[in-house]
Amino acid sequence: MKKSLLTIILLYAVYGLILYFYLFFWTGYELPKGIEGTAADPKTFLTTEELQLSENYSQLKNLLFFISIPLEWIIFFIVLSFGISKTFQQWAETASRFFIVQTALYYFWLSLLVTLLTLPVSWLNYKLSKDFQISTQTLNSWLKDEVTDFLVNYVLMAVVVTFLYIIIRKFEKRWWLWAWFASIPFTLFIMFIQPVIIDPLYNDFYPLKNKKLEEEILQLASKADIPAEHVYEVDMSSKTNALNAYVTGIGSNSRIVLWDTTLNKLSEDEILFIMAHEMGHYVMKHIYIGIAGYLLLSLAGLYIIHRLMIFCTNRWGKRLNIQSIRELSSLPLFLLLLGMLSFASSPISGIVSRYQEKQADLYAIEMTKNEEAAVKTFQHLAKFSRSEINPPKIVKFLRYDHPSLIERIMYIENIKNKE
Length: 419
Ligand SMILES: [Zn+2]
Known about the structure:
- There is one protein chain.
- By secondary structure, the protein is mainly alpha-helical.
- Helix content is about 70%, strand content about 5%.
- The structure holds zinc ion.
- Zinc ion (ZN) binds near residues 357 and 360.
- Zinc ion (ZN) binds near residues 277, 281, 357 and 360.
């Protein structure tokens, strides 16, 4: 046991080192040919210092991201192989004879342990964003968000885990199919309540404060048949300097949300471009396409997890302290496989998402006929959010849900030049 743990830690260290060298030394950050001096050339809209800061910030952020991913997997492996999961299950079983209470208790200990062990990484992320003057959040406010996160995830996941194990115990061979069926109404329900119940736990949402701007935005929205009550502003300036806007929720709860930082720092034309981009997502029903894609992937994922859980239990059941997948203590194996598969599928969802983002950009140009404002918006995103301008290939492949800023500026410039 000690030997396999040692091997894993060694592999993890090598992985971290390779990443470090890749991100900081090996990969070239040179710009594509022919863009020097154009609107996509960062030297034309950032100072040397801003450019340097943005590069350093992206490198460190990427390093932290890729280091934190296998960390959770290693934690699950340790929790299994050192019998910690088994102990949690015993505690839960001694405390109550009701299965629902047992899962709630078991999952509480498991998620508490994982949260505490990954807290340093979350803190590093916060610290980094603070050091680079992106986050404006106080430590208290950050901690409060962490606690909220823990509680929200705990409640939602405790429900999921309870249902999952009831289903596994009832249908040992076809549980993946039944679990998938059960996940459909659950996913839709969460998407429905997200903007009205979950998001307000973190931030304040309200109709736009600037009434003159609101009128313009609503005028644009009515062009696309989006009713006024679907547009919101959220108070983010107490937490960050970064800019953002997004579409969320489904059905009567679907809404377009603009961060107040976006409204405060950008010019009216730029805000209207962003708004038109979000309207593009809304009108083209990207959220629903996203849900359908997610459900499709999760059906395949659950089936693969089912096969892998049988395989792992047969092969390493003793080492991992799993006699049967019917036992609650096998949950870390489920979560470990789930984490690995979701990571493996991230390039697929990235491709779909990047395609949708481009569609939304083109829609916004169609709507506003203002390429100038679009280019300025992207330049300002780079400036205020320190968004990475030209990410390395692997980073883009694995974690980009938007085209890079350089690509976005370039295709807008191309439209402009064609006219
Ligand atoms: Zn978008």
